[in-house]
Amino acid sequence: MFESAEIGHAIDKETYEAEVPALREALLEAQFELKQQARFPVIVLINGIEGAGKGETVKLLNEWMDPRLIEVRTFDQQSDEELARPPAWRYWRALPAKGRMGIFFGNWYSQMLQGRVHGEFKDAVLDQAISGAERLELMLCDEGALIFKFWFHLSKKQMKARLKALKDDPLHSWRISPLDWQQSETYDRFVRFGERVLRRTSRDYAPWHVIEGVDPHYRSLAVGKILLEGLQAALKSTGPAERQTNIAPLGHSIDGLSLLGSLDLSKRLEKKDYEEQLITEQARLAGLLRDKQMRRHALVAVFEGNDAAGKGGAIRRVAAALDPRQYRIVPIAAPTEDERAQPYLWRFWRHIPVRGKFTVFDRSWYGRVLVERVEGFCSQADWMRAYGEINDFEEQLRNAGVVVVKFWLSIDKDTQLERFQEREQIPFKRFKITEEDWRNRDKWEVYAEAVGDMVDRTSTEIAPWTLIEANDKRWARVKVLRTLNEALEAAFAKHKK
Amino acid sequence: MFESAEIGHAIDKETYEAEVPALREALLEAQFELKQQARFPVIVLINGIEGAGKGETVKLLNEWMDPRLIEVRTFDQQSDEELARPPAWRYWRALPAKGRMGIFFGNWYSQMLQGRVHGEFKDAVLDQAISGAERLELMLCDEGALIFKFWFHLSKKQMKARLKALKDDPLHSWRISPLDWQQSETYDRFVRFGERVLRRTSRDYAPWHVIEGVDPHYRSLAVGKILLEGLQAALKSTGPAERQTNIAPLGHSIDGLSLLGSLDLSKRLEKKDYEEQLITEQARLAGLLRDKQMRRHALVAVFEGNDAAGKGGAIRRVAAALDPRQYRIVPIAAPTEDERAQPYLWRFWRHIPVRGKFTVFDRSWYGRVLVERVEGFCSQADWMRAYGEINDFEEQLRNAGVVVVKFWLSIDKDTQLERFQEREQIPFKRFKITEEDWRNRDKWEVYAEAVGDMVDRTSTEIAPWTLIEANDKRWARVKVLRTLNEALEAAFAKHKK
């Protein structure tokens, strides 16, 4: 969930200064239009890691936009007035009116996270708070509100460096954080529970935007652009005042950097190393699947990737290690008639393995946010809600002991071209290449954006994505096997504790 | 929540036999149309009290409709197959396809309730299960499903009698309930937690229908008609396959009986008794509000009722007892400009008292499901979701120690006419009667239905409605005061324990 916000996003000063004037003007214009229409309020939630630029961004937004139409609310210590009333009262009294924008700095999410990080309560109570937040936000959206949720992120290393730098800064020191961020464990817990909160509350009507906070130019432009695009879309919508559809772009890269792009596709294995490691990992997998700990687990592996990235070959190397009674490979193509008559997740639920078994999905439920999104086979509303539905689905698997491992096999465009041409030339491979593959290739960038959003929104602690550098098939196959083994070992170790 | 299902609903045999043929024919027709369109599946959830006719109703539906298009699923003990997979798998495998109907007899609600009643877990875990059910149902609705949720209810007395009668019935004895219903405490706990579950999961997209289960004719016709109307509405809707709006009627009375109608409006107090009791109750209220226990509570009283039912007079009798610094009366009329620029609950949140204080709402947030519904000031979708939003709101108040007491002052049509005429004749009362009052009077039945739905859907353990027989003003005023006192004493007693 936070991977894309740890890759060093940055915008150079020149670009920044060139872009800001137009952005400011457009934001002011949108703000004015918002006021004129007075059809809906805008609520901006600011959360995230200490030192990631939350305060600075709020300050900047106030400079950029017309501060008379923005209310910035900081919810730190509760006042006597607030303490004497139900907890939500402080948020209700601060709600912006239609036509106005409210920036909530420190909000319901801060409170639930602080409580959980401090150990004041456990996950079940955190989940109650999460459910309360969902109800509140759904109601606000149903009443017309447009909600932006920003999570400012830093890697632990980045945070430590920032805190050191900020220590002596008088502009910062006024803000007393209720958490002791100097402690490494605070960061770990905050990120762990933060992930749970984001996973659950990133819903189509109010999605989270995770912003890497290191570079001020980047984070400012990123936030400004998301606000602008979301505002413009909502101002244009002609539907009833009720239920704006927040269609702010999801993880649209503004600096050309992306998680996929940050992969080192030159990684490779020599034949000798490959053969050695392959056999080792295969034997390890076979052993793990026979381990008596498997009795309380099942294994699900999801293979997605560029066309010709080598999914089939990798799956065969996995299968080669195993007793055929232990695993099943489920290839996902167009849904059957029976499957089309059901909710889209039904065709995958059918194939969930019993404890002790292993199912390989050759393409998967992620088709919803990949091919169906890109090709327009479902509406935007459908694929927007799918991220949350898929996270719910995988959480259910995980809670039942199913280990979920998800692979994206990534190759570059040149490698794909080579492999396509090779397939066309070699008779027994010709069936593997179709017109459709060439058409998909034309949409390379659109698919790349969909993949980026998918990983950002569904790579979770309970079911993380593993990106596989697949230009070299050997490297890819060994990494797939090793990742499976590590995931199983980690699951087994948890139970041993 | 269950009050309307304890008033002895019944349909005589003659009426029943006269109505059934047409109902069956219409149901079969709707079923056929459902199959032809094959646009969405229908999911019917059957829950409720043991002995309230769940099994019999399912059997009957199967007889009435084409059983080839219905799948009845009983989820009792989990099979080995099911135990080896995530808990939701058993429901997914049983989902009806588009064009078909699935009756889930024993479902996710049964499981969470049994667990909670048995004390296997506490409220926080029950709430996690509730939230899971909400997510599942929202997703199913977003994917097009039409969901009916029936809760078959019996009062405790009725249940005991039914269980006794059923004991020797071989048609019933096959069904082994996992709960020991012979125990009075089982009933109490089941109803208490059932209320929590219904309150939380009765959402606009999948509302609950509570059916009184004593009389087989009544419960069969009630279920059949709700199914029919809901089906017909969904089949007619021309929107996209996604997100059917379930507009099955809410609590539409089919036997002429209603909770309001069951009030004994002839109740009255003699002048002497009135004066004595009034003073006693006023003194008691004054004392309770000065009690040091009030430091952790606040009191909110909601007054709704027929026009000319005597809300103002009753409120004055409450206020008369108190120090003006302790209470506030908030009269609710048309919203101000500021209030129209906010979600509808905002204008009430503003006036929530601090601990130790008392706020009287002369009309309230229930305007959403009364005047706004009847006069069409908001859309059906808006008032349908309001029941859940209001329950959430009141739960937040209650959790913060606010005691919420809600009054419906009920008079009959003749009494209203008398009072209207009196108001027109007495100069200082003339300002109290307007054209609008006469117009509302013409909509007596429509308002009565809205009031019935309101009470059914928002009379909860945390904030119950008290229906006040108000033909006699003396009776009404004393009952209002006594109810307030009893509510405060109950809240204080809870803390003392």
Automatic annotation (TrEMBL), chains A, B:
The protein's matches in InterPro entries, at most eight in alphabetical order, are given as: P-loop_NTPase, PolyP_AMP_Tfrase, PPK2-related
Organism superkingdom: Bacteria
**Which residue range or ranges hold the Polyphosphate kinase-2-related domain?**
11-236, 269-493
Identification of the protein by name:
Polyphosphate:AMP phosphotransferase
